[in-house]
Amino acid sequence: MRIKLYVLLLILLFHFQVVKAADTTLYYSDFSNLVLDGTVSENEYPTTFDVTAASDGSKFLSVSWGHNNTHIALAMTGQLSGWIGFGMNEPGKGMAGADMIISSVKDGKLISKDYFSTGNVAPNEDADQITIQGAGKEENGITTIEIIFPLQSSDTAGQDHNWEVGNTYGFFFAAHESSDELTYHTWRSNLLTVEIADSSKTPAQSTVQLGESGQASQDESPIAPILFWAFIAFIAFVVWKNSKYY
């Protein structure tokens, strides 16, 4: 009985240890440096990170973003000439029920539309499109898309979520290497998580790598891993000692 109790405690501790903080953070910006011109300039966005393909870990997008409490500003750059898609959902959820914005640059003009997804199938255009402002550029085989869209939606058809500052959500990216028409993606990311931070939080660094930050997360104490492994060593010792009596 005592050993079973120790094992249960170990399982519970391991569960709470592996539940990690958001992969990245969507920080506040007053958008004073933001220019929608299809070019990402220094200090234009609070945070920049690389997005890698779920299939092989290769980078396919560089993403920059921020929010001003009412809107999200999002820039996506990739060595491609096709569409780029961004999806957002409740924590731990993938495509089913996700809001999506899919953009491309065609004949020098940005095409960006609001979609909703019902599962791992092609998404559908929203009947009630949110307002998306933006600009795009396609030069030398590289596409850059900059868009601004609202955190809150007036959609009455239930095809959009309302995003709240201070909450954490799931998000993902996908893209096609050459097609401007919506067809099966060439790359997709894993499901990631993002905290929409309030204006009291500031970026720890200007560029981050998802899941590979060089410093401790603001939401994780550096002492936690030490305590975790110390506890495991203690449990192992107790189990070994008590096993002599069974």
The whole-angstrom Rg is 21 Å
Number of domains: 2
The total of helices stands at: 2
Largest sheet: 8 strands, mixed
CATH architecture of the largest domain: Sandwich
Instruction: Report the mean per-residue pLDDT as an integer.
Output: 81
Contiguous low-pLDDT stretches (5 residues minimum) are 3-21, 205-209, 211-224
What is the number of E strands? 14
Shape: globular
Percent of residues in helices comes to 10-25%
How would you describe the overall organization of this protein?
The structure is a single chain. The chain has 246 residues and is α+β, with helices and mostly antiparallel strands. It folds into 2 domains: 1-20 and 220-246; 22-219, Immunoglobulin-like (Sandwich). 15% of the residues lie in helices and 34% in strands. The chain is built from 2 helices and 14 strands, in the order αββββββββββββββα. It has helices spanning 2-18, 224-242; strands at 24-26, 47-52, 59-67, 71-78, 84-89, 99-106, 109-116, 124-125, 133-139, 142-150, 168-175, 187-188, 192-196, 207-209. Strands 1, 5, 6, 7, 8, 11, 12 and 13 form an 8-stranded mixed β-sheet that branches. A 6-stranded mixed β-sheet has the order 9-10-4-3-2-14, with no helix packed on it. A hairpin with a 6-residue loop joins β2 and β3 (59-67). α1 (2-18) runs antiparallel to α2. The chain is globular and about 75 Å long.
